[in-house]
Design a protein that fits this description.
629 residues, alpha+beta, BirA Bifunctional Protein, domain 2, nine-stranded mixed beta sheet
């Protein structure tokens, strides 16, 4: 069974249960300043999980491309990947007193049996290999006995002992929110207990993870393949939790892990999806996977993730998404160089080939992806050269001959071509030259790891403080000022096109309650006259107090009326388009027509005034504008 077949079976299964397929949201979140990448299927749906009405109804299903930067350092084992596709189904709200209807919300009694049916009937997973975990309770939040009773009945019907198949865990394992543990959740964020399902590969237990193996053990025997989160709580400002007015279901199943289970392959990198990538790396490096697993896994994972991130419009830089992309590429290039190769083209080509059936945009962007990576490879070579020049000035290499031999006897590291440097200089190489600790060591330098870690901790503390101030709005911030900024970006997008031409398109945005940031394709600075003209257009539209509304439209109709959007990234035929101006009966007369999930103000007059206060060059034909509303 291929990855695309699993997707097809999953979508059809839930469509037959009255779910509506919704689009795959962009890997780079639109107008969400709280996170750099879409890291879960629920992330674009937070507003609806909190009670907002979704235009597609209460039952939703999709496949969401996800990336988790926090997993970068874990790559190298047999089961972690930074990029993955998440199969998701949702029920947006079932009041406690409501009976389940064919189009209404549902909860545990429906979700758990459906998940079991999909895994055992559609994917044909052996029932004896499946195990589940359930939430054990936390403070004033009760143990999830309801899920236990449902699972107990399912296992007993299958002729299995529920006591052997079901385990209870605490909040560190069976609680889900985007911020993680309850104590880490900001006020207003939704979360809830979950029940997870695991596949048993029956591999030998590694005792470095504990004397006894268990369902949630990290030894790799059991692999989590699905997680039903019951979003029923919201954190209050005093740290306590209150039940949401509606009970939600948020299921996520990693496509790559489900594929591993259907193939009974405990190494994700040896599944039918990724094994061709591994074989290509073996071929160009002339090194075997068995002897170089960690390096080859890093190369495969990081190039896959980088390909999708570049396709989403990100380029390497020292800030935000661009920094993560640069980190991925340089880490993968390090591993490739250590395997004595630098030929990236065959790797990108096979990645596109493997993913094109489910993500066709990669094939269209193949040349762009390859060129961005080649440019970063050249940039990295220059970075390493400058770093070496910086270090050689402070730590001149010893001359050849007797002097070097004598010094080598005194300093053993020098004999191996390794120079010991200060943690301060190591941190300069990290912060100024963009080299990670492992990359610094690969250049032949060693340093006090503990002292470096202390400096990193100081740096991260400052970064967190800055981030807390920058993202003061919290999760999916919907305060009035931020919503005004969201609507302002639509006006700005169209005004820039009015002044510079219709070839201009948005390349990213970031909105907080303090300011609007907008990126677009343009290769030179805007003149004072152009900036003034853009401001005048926007302020005129604000003064006209135009209505703001949305419609769900067929994809082709949205294109025909000139709506702006990355439609090629969507999986469905209907899209949500926001109009500024015009009316429901005459949307073609609107000033701005743009694909967007919302939210927005009702009338442009609520914005009061728009002012551009800064612009900057991002390189490679991209500009950035900062504005106040």
């Amino acid at each position: 069974m291929t990855a695309s077949q699993i997707i097809e079976k999953y979508i059809k299964f839930f469509e037959s249960r009255d779910h509506i397929r919704i689009p795959n949201s962009s890997l780079v979140p639109e107008n969400d300043p709280t996170t750099l990448f879409t890291s879960s299927g629920m992330q674009p749906l937070v507003l609806y999980l909190l009670g907002g009405k979704h235009p597609a109804g209460k039952r939703l299903v999709n496949v969401q491309n996800c990336f988790r930067a926090q997993d970068i350092e874990e790559i190298g084992d047999n089961r972690h990947t930074t990029f993955f596709r998440m199969l998701g189904n949702w029920s947006l709200g079932k009041p406690a007193s409501q009976k389940t209807t064919s189009r209404g919300g549902y909860f545990k009694a429906e979700q758990i049996p459906w998940l079991w049916e999909f895994l055992t009937d559609r994917l044909k997973l052996p029932v004896e290999k499946l195990y589940v975990t359930i939430f054990n309770g936390f403070n004033d939040i009760e143990k999830d006995n309801e899920s236990y009773e449902i699972w107990k009945e399912i296992f007993e019907k299958a002729g299995l002992d529920a006591r052997e198949k079901i385990s209870f865990y605490g909040v560190d394992k069976n609680w889900w929110s985007r911020a993680g543990l309850p104590q880490n959740m900001p006020a207003g964020e939704p979360g809830g207990p979950d029940t997870e399902i695991f596949f048993d590969f029956e591999t030998e237990h590694d005792k470095k993870f504990g004397q006894k193996c268990h369902t949630n053990c990290d030894c790799g025997r059991y692999l989590e393949i699905g997680n039903s989160v019951f979003m029923q709580y919201q954190k209050k400002s005093d740290g306590s939790f209150v039940e949401l007015p509606q009970k939600n279901v948020d299921f996520g199943g990693g496509l790559e892990r489900l594929l591993a289970a259907t193939e009974n392959q405990n190494d994700i990198f040896q599944t039918s999806l990724l094994s061709p990538v591994i074989k290509t790396i073996e071929k160009i490096t002339r090194k075997t996977y068995d002897e170089n697993k960690e390096k080859i896994r890093i190369i495969a994972d990081h190039f896959v993730a980088s390909s999708f991130i570049i396709s989403a419009g990100v380029i390497p830089s020292n800030k935000e998404q661009g920094y993560i992309l640069r980190r991925l590429l340089r880490r993968s290039l390090d591993s490739l160089f250590q395997l004595e190769s630098s030929d990236i083209s065959p790797i990108i080509k096979i990645i596109v080939e493997q993913y094109k059936n489910t993500d066709g945009k990669l094939a269209k962007d193949f040349e762009k992806i390859k060129n961005v990576i080649l440019e970063e490879q050249q940039s990295y070579n220059q970075t390493q050269k400058k770093a070496k020049e910086f270090m050689h000035k402070k730590y001149p290499p010893l001359p050849a001959g007797p002097l070097r031999s004598e010094a080598s006897r005194k300093v053993g590291d020098e004999l191996m071509g390794i120079s010991k440097i200060s943690a301060e200089d190591a941190f300069i190489l990290y912060s100024t030259h963009g080299l990670s600790p492992s990359q610094i060591k690969s250049l032949g330098y060693t340093f006090d790891d503990r002292a470096f870690a202390n400096k990193m901790e100081e740096h991260q503390k400052l970064s967190r403080e800055g981030a807390a101030q920058k993202f003061a709005g919290g999760l999916a911030d919907t305060n009035t000022q931020t919503i005004m900024g969201h609507t302002a970006t639509h006006l700005l997008h169209q005004a820039i096109r009015d002044v510079l031409g219709d070839h201009i398109h948005q390349a990213g945005s970031n909105i907080t309650s303090q300011r609007v940031r907008f990126d677009f394709n343009y290769d030179k600075a805007l003149t004072e006259e152009e900036v003034k003209k853009i401001e005048e257009i926007i302020n005129k539209k604000i003064k006209e107090n135009l209505p703001v509304h949305f419609e769900m439209l067929p994809l082709e109709k949205a294109k025909d009326i000139g709506a702006i959007g990355l439609f090629d990234e969507k999986y469905e035929d209907n899209v949500k388009v926001y109009f500024i101006g015009g009316s429901t009966s005459s949307p073609q007369e609107a000033y701005s027509k743009e694909f967007c999930g919302g939210p927005h103000v009702n009338f442009t007059g609520e914005l009061k005034r728009f002012t551009i206060f800064k612009q900057e060059n991002l390189g490679r034909g991209l500009r950035r504008i900062y504005a106040n509303v």
